[in-house]
């Protein structure tokens, strides 16, 4: 059952030097119950994509074209108050990057979640508070801590609190932008375990945005690789890890040391991330691609299904 | 000896001026200030009326504006417009000189506290806090009353009581420069404190000092006008504050002599506003704290 | 632990500051140029009276002894005698203190309200006409000398349109039939000075509020609030304002000195019988005992107000308490 269908989305930022093409023709598809991992380098447009869904972009960003169908409704065409009342948090919530500062330091954590609940549902403060305590237990926090202030929480606890906040109104979709990046490894593992348990318990759908493929491997069933504002590969997890088709995905996966194999040196992907003010012509990856062909420099490859729901945008793959 | 520093500063100044000219507020303020400074400098040539108390026209006391007196006359028959443009000289002069004292003092204290740190910093900051807590104008009043009514006393009093703001800003700037890695390497190469101060800290701090001082001239002018208004001004010099003092004392208020009261206040407001605009524009360019935002 | 030790520490610091102020007050008036005798007394008293006062004030003794006598007098509430008002300095100040507090409190409320609300509004609608015009308005008012602003208000509203009385706190020579009549008369007299002082001082508060609001609006928690689906008005006035007001409390306490300056000037212009006007009268009449006493009281009160503001800040910002 289709939950989210992003079609040809283009989002540009206006800066003094021109327009930065952060998201440049992105297509994405999610079913109910999917945990989709969105991977890519910093600056490739992942966060912009995430923020576009409920239109939380800064003032200098503009959604140029495209549609975002959520449960059949195009979110880009909704009026602001309709979006605000019925979709934000109620159906789509976000776990922000750098959640350390996502909580307001002068209010108690529980109060902030209560505010979110009471904004969308007509229930009393007492009932809302009870739900907060249940949510806290769900995410592995002691319910009394809801009365505390954010600075009294450790990093891992804050992340759990943010997840509790994201669950407050029983949303259909949670977008988690780098949910574990700022945490140390042990806490990371705990949070990933939490996310997995929530997936099993609540039947949520989630988009997990990260540059760390191992996080995706740990929690998701589908993955999309993003590069320079475009999706270059999309498939289920197993196919992607076993058989990455796009040279960029191959480069990303090749550099993951395996405990089982012999130690070998890293082979980083040559070159640097492209300038989104003036992206390269044709395939955006072509300046760094070890298999570059002449057509790659001239023509942009489309995202094509090469079998079994595995999509790739690469001329070389097309040829074979 | 300082030739190299001066040429570096001059180049920076030219870059700064280019940026400054792009700020509408800054240019506007500069324009207003230029007008007032010109009026002050050329005051004796702009009007033939005398400002001497004994040379007023007693037949034309407290007369409203007319063809002969565009701002009317005061209670001694003097032309108010002439008083205003001469008053500007003193007000501006006091503002400048007092700010030079407070700016210099503030920069000195701020740099020492910021650079040498530890107990010296503690003591200086305690003193600064003390000066911050004690209300400014009452202390100025007390000092002026005890020292006597002279223009130099006023400049001195305003100067030694207005340095705290500059001191704090300079101190944090010096502290942040001091922390930078390149200072460590320069010192490791054998540079003494004086060298570091002269070559590295001073050029980076000077623009900030200039911006702070510009922002403070307005305050100094307001302080002088307040002191003069309260009767602590120098009776031998006409300033805008003194004009208002005489205006209020002779009952111009209850008699409705608005031409005597309105102009000096507007001049003060315009000049203070001009300095605020210029100082704000300067601050936007040179203050690293704001630039980062 | 946290909060109590915080209060304790601040109390000690305030007491030390007050002590330094007392000492400063003493030495200032003793070491200034000029004969200490002529400074302290009305020049027209007789030589015999002078001798008596000298002995009583201990001005013939070494400085340190004088200091001790001064402190002792202080503890007994003896701030000297005002020859201008023919009453003890302490009594004179105490009588006028309520008037000053009334004026300062009422004008502060106006200034804080204007500064906070306009500041939040300007930050919310950054770059709009509302924003730019409030900046211009507050900066202009802030640049005007406060006594001149008061004077202009008198010119327009009292002299020209006869809407408000010009001087004082009550109409002279009037008998009041009830408390409410008295209160109404005071209110009529209070209106202009209160508005003048409030409007003249809100500029600084406005600019700072606007800046802190703009900062807070770029914080992550503001984006979270928006993502949750809160209305813009709720975000600004409920969530973000709390954050922006924290530094404001500090700034308000720093501005107290400024407010005191304003009240001195405003009281003088409106002949409002408060402590500020007392300072003006004492300077005019060279009544230095009165000046010294008034200065001391005002400064001590400012230090106390700063202390209270610090405590309030400690209560308001949960991060400080722990």
Strand order of the largest sheet of chain C: 1-2
**End-to-end C-alpha gap of chain C:** 8 Å
CATH level 4 superfamily of chain B: MetI-like
* CATH fold description of the largest domain in chain C: MetI-like fold
Tell me the series of helices and strands of chain C, N- to C-terminal: HHHHEEHHHHHHHHHH
Radius of gyration of chain B from CA coordinates: 22 Å
Describe the protein's architecture and organization.
The complex is a heterotrimer of chains A (320), B (293) and C (322). Chain A is an alpha/beta fold and 320 residues long. Chain A folds into 2 domains: 4-91 and 171-319, Rossmann fold (3-Layer(aba) Sandwich); 102-170, no CATH class. Chain A is 32% helix and 24% strand. Chain A starts with a strand and ends with a helix. Chain B is an all-alpha fold. Chain B has one domain: MetI-like fold. Chain B has helices at residues 3-21, 24-41, 43-46, 80-116, 118-133, 136-147, 151-161, 164-178, 181-188, 193-232, 240-249, 258-286, 288-292. The model of chain B has no long low-confidence stretch (mean pLDDT 83). Chain C is mostly helical and 322 residues long. Chain C is built from 14 helices and 2 strands. A two-stranded antiparallel sheet of chain C has the order 1-2. The termini of chain C are close together. The model of chain C has no long low-confidence stretch (mean pLDDT 81).
Short note summarizing the structure:
The complex is a heterotrimer of chains A (320), B (293) and C (322). Chain A folds into 2 domains: 4-91 and 171-319, Rossmann fold (3-Layer(aba) Sandwich), CATH 3.40.50; 102-170, no CATH class.
Please describe the topology of this protein.
The complex is a heterotrimer of chains A (320), B (293) and C (322).
Chain A: E1 2-15, E2 18-31, E3 35-39, H1 46-53, E4 61-70, E5 73-74, H2 80-86, E6 92-95, H3 109-120, H4 125-138, H5 155-167, E7 173-177, H6 185-202, E8 205-210, H7 213-219, E9 222-227, E10 230-236, H8 237-242, H9 247-254, H10 294-298, E11 304-305, E12 311-312, H11 315-319
Chain B: H1 3-21, H2 24-41, H3 43-46, H4 80-116, H5 118-133, H6 136-147, H7 151-161, H8 164-178, H9 181-188, H10 193-232, H11 240-249, H12 258-286, H13 288-292
Helix pairs in contact in B: 2-4, 2-12, 4-5, 4-7, 4-8, 4-10, 4-11, 4-12, 6-7, 6-10, 7-10, 8-10, 10-11, 10-12, 11-12
Chain C: H1 2-31, H2 36-40, H3 47-57, H4 63-75, E1 81-82, E2 87-88, H5 89-124, H6 129-143, H7 146-160, H8 179-217, H9 220-228, H10 232-254, H11 256-270, H12 275-284, H13 288-316, H14 318-321
Antiparallel strand pairs in C: 1-2
